[in-house]
């Protein structure tokens, strides 16, 4: 049995590790969450106490990734905050293939929701889907989802873009290959990695809510550098660029266009 009791110093040390790696602020309100998730990792790895666990993540890159993963919220679903996509479908008249970046894409529901709607409109496009979490990226690459997770997807789109699982895969759907090939999953830490290309549209939704203002500023500055003039940036509906320095104009709630 692991002794999962954690001292205030250990809590502070672990919160600092999380902040430095992912930008996520774990304040006192998140205490129970961190303790519960840490306990789960310790039981899984059979590490006897918190002090040994802290030593382990300092030397074991894989467990370090698992720990960061365990402290982040990966919740997402198909067609979440779809007003942004609807705005683009109404507004865009693309003359060349669109380059789209779903930054913090979690398990892939966001980029695949964009992909099926853009395919339906006959847009030419490619999507980079990135996240800091290896396990979420792997789920996105597999592109297999329980049927109850696709309830928001309109029926005709479900039929056209999703394969129904059979036998042992009953109760699951998988994105069809021609949808999967539009989306490339790659690891990218919003805090420390430089974008390698320029994009026409960037979605960075429901992640900055966990960051403090200096981290949000840093991330927004980096994202906007990677956005072509005239390109669009979307953040989560409960997020905004309020109070940050930027060179974009609001076009819809939580949606901005670069000058
Ligand atoms: C709540 S999900 C949002 C998924 C999707 N964008 C949406 O709106 O439904 C937040 C994601 O941000 C990722 N994340 C947290 N910190 C990150 C960082 N520093 N760099 C990249 N991704 C990060 C988490 O791994 C998680 O998958």
Written account of the structure:
- The chain is of the alpha/beta class.
- It has 2 domains: 8-71, Chemotaxis Receptor Methyltransferase Cher, domain 1 (Orthogonal Bundle), CATH 1.10.155.10; 83-258, Vaccinia Virus protein VP39 (Rossmann fold, 3-Layer(aba) Sandwich), CATH 3.40.50.150.
- The chain has helices at residues 8-22, 31-45, 50-59, 61-71, 83-91, 109-120, 134-142, 155-161, 177-180, 213-225, and strands spanning 98-103, 125-131, 144-146, 162-164, 172-175, 183-187, 199-204, 227-235, 248-252, 255-258.
- The chain has a 7-stranded mixed beta sheet with strand order 6-2-1-7-8-10-9.
- It is globular.
- The protein binds S-adenosylmethionine (SAM).
- Residues 22-24, 72-76, 80, 104-106, 110, 131-133, 136, 189-191, 205-207, 236 line the site of S-adenosylmethionine (SAM).
- S-adenosylmethionine binds at residues 22-24, 72-76, 80, 104-106, 110, 131-133, 136, 189-191, 205-207, 236.
């Amino acid at each position: 049995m692991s002794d999962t009791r954690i001292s205030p110093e250990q809590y502070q040390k672990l919160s600092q590790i999380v902040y430095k790696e992912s930008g996520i602020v774990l304040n006192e309100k998140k205490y129970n969450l961190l303790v519960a998730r840490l306990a789960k990792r310790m039981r899984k790895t059979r590490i006897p106490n918190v002090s040994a666990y802290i030593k382990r993540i300092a030397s074991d890159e894989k467990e370090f990734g698992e720990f960061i993963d365990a402290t982040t919220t990966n919740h997402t679903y198909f067609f979440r905050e779809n007003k942004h996509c609807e705005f683009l479908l109404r507004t865009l008249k693309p003359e060349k293939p669109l380059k789209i970046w779903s930054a913090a894409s979690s398990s892939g529901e966001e980029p695949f929701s964009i992909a099926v709607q853009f395919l339906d409109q006959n847009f030419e496009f490619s999507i980079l889907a990135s996240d800091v979490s290896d396990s979420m990226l792997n789920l996105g690459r597999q592109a297999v989802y329980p049927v109850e997770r696709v309830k928001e997807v309109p029926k005709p789109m479900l039929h056209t873009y999703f394969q129904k699982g059979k036998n042992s895969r009953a109760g699951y759907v998988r994105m069809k290959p021609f949808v999967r090939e539009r989306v490339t999953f790659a690891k990218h830490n919003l805090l420390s990695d430089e974008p390698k290309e320029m994009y026409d549209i960037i979605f960075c939704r429901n992640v900055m809510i966990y960051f403090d203002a200096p981290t949000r500023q840093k991330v927004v500055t980096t994202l906007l550098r990677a956005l072509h003039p005239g390109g669009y940036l979307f953040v989560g509906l409960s997020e905004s660029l309020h109070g940050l320095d930027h060179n974009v104009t609001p076009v819809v709630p939580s949606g901005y266009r670069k000058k």
